């Protein structure tokens, strides 16, 4: 692709593998975000995370997944031309306290995730910073550098993925046989954060994180999570009771609390899936969910 087509406007952000800048596409007269990723070393090719992101984004075309428009190579850099989404959920999470806005954002996140999971992709790093919001109020799941294509065969997977605060207990206990349910744990943590406007479980280390989970949701027994005690990093923890969700989430409706509990089930086999969550009564009762237009209006002062 002819790179002079793009005129640089300003810096947008820095990720683990490259910088992202706002450009104007002179052919379409629209703004785009271009992520620039350096090749490892001369002759060594590009970093595998870039390849992974390109391969996955080319397949996943959905309104709630960031769109990859184009890829070009320039000055030993690979450039991903992405749809622009000027805000991120972590910048605006303090605005999501009312049920209608939270419901609208969660619905979009689940729709994007259900599509991704139906297409056999796990994101593996869902967090508010990776949920961009476009000017027209649409959630755009981004940063597929650690995403993975899953097949039905339970092949061992890499451990150490996912940001600590959003990491599921099976990952914290070192399992290599995790699945799409790990993304749903992260969604539960994001949902809790939208309700209370602050991160739900803020651990400093893996041990601290698992202790925070147990002190909040109660220490699980064999009946809650069969097979937990054979996971590689399992250690027996002192029994801790579950806190009251009514007290922990006083502004949430009963349906919101019920859905949250189902997202935060210890046993990944019992955790609600993205498509099941979309059928939960939370979305069909009480406050109607905010539309993209409503979200765009609320967020209009926070566009970066
Ligand atoms: P990433 O490498 O994907 O983690 O991106 C690094 C940062 O660049 C993000 O935290 C955002 O601030 C920004 N960014 C990434 N993609 C986009 C996009 N499509 N539109 C606007 N900003 C973006």
From TrEMBL:
ATP binds at residue 35. Pfam families: Pkinase (PF00069). Its EC number is 2.7.11.23. Residues 6-283 form the Protein kinase domain. Signal peptide: none annotated. InterPro entries: CDK, Kinase-like_dom_sf, Prot_kinase_dom, Protein_kinase_ATP_BS, Ser/Thr_kinase_AS. GO terms for cellular component: cytoplasm; transcription factor TFIIK complex. GO terms for biological process: positive regulation of transcription by RNA polymerase II. The keyword Transferase applies. It comes from the Eukaryota. One of its GO terms (molecular function) is cyclin-dependent protein serine/threonine kinase activity. Gene3D superfamilies: Phosphorylase Kinase, domain 1, Transferase(Phosphotransferase) domain 1. The keyword Transferase applies. Keywords: ATP-binding, Kinase, Nucleotide-binding, Serine/threonine-protein kinase, Transferase. It is an enzyme of class 2 (transferase). May form a complex composed of at least the catalytic subunit CRK2 and a cyclin. Belongs to the protein kinase superfamily. CMGC Ser/Thr protein kinase family. CDC2/CDKX subfamily. This is Cyclin-dependent kinase 2 homolog. It comes from Blepharisma stoltei. The lineage of its organism: Eukaryota, Sar, Alveolata, Ciliophora, Postciliodesmatophora.
């Amino acid at each position: 692709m002819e790179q002079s087509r793009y005129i640089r406007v300003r810096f947008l952000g820095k990720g683990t593998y490259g910088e992202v800048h706002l450009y104007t596409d002179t052919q379409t007269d629209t703004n785009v975000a271009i992520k620039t990723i350096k090749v490892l070393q001369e002759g060594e090719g590009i970093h595998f995370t870039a390849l992974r992101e390109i391969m996955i984004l080319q397949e996943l075309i959905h309104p709630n997944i960031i769109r990859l428009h184009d890829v070009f190579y320039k000055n030993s850099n690979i450039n991903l031309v992405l749809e622009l989404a000027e805000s991120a959920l972590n910048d605006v999470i303090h605005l999501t306290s009312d049920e209608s806005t939270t419901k609208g954002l969660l619905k979009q996140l689940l729709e994007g995730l259900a599509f991704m999971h139906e297409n056999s992709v796990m994101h593996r790093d869902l967090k508010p910073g990776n949920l961009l919001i476009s000017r027209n109020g649409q959630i755009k799941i981004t940063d597929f550098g650690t995403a993975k294509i899953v097949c039905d065969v339970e092949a061992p997977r890499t451990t150490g993925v996912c940001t600590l605060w959003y990491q599921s207990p099976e990952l914290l206990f070192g399992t290599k046989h995790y699945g799409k349910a790990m993304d749903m744990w992260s969604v539960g943590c994001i949902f809790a954060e939208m309700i209370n406007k602050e991160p739900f479980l803020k651990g400093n280390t893996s041990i601290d994180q698992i202790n925070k989970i147990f002190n909040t949701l109660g220490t699980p027994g064999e009946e809650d999570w069969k097979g937990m005690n054979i996971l590689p990093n399992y250690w027996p923890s002192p029994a801790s009771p579950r806190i009251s969700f009514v007290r922990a989430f006083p502004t949430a409706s009963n349906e919101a609390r019920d859905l949250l509990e189902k997202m935060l089930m210890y046993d990944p086999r019992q955790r609600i899936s993205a498509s099941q969550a979309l059928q939960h009564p939370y979305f069909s009762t009480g406050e109607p969910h905010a539309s993209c237009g409503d979200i765009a209006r609320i967020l209009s002062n926070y566009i970066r």
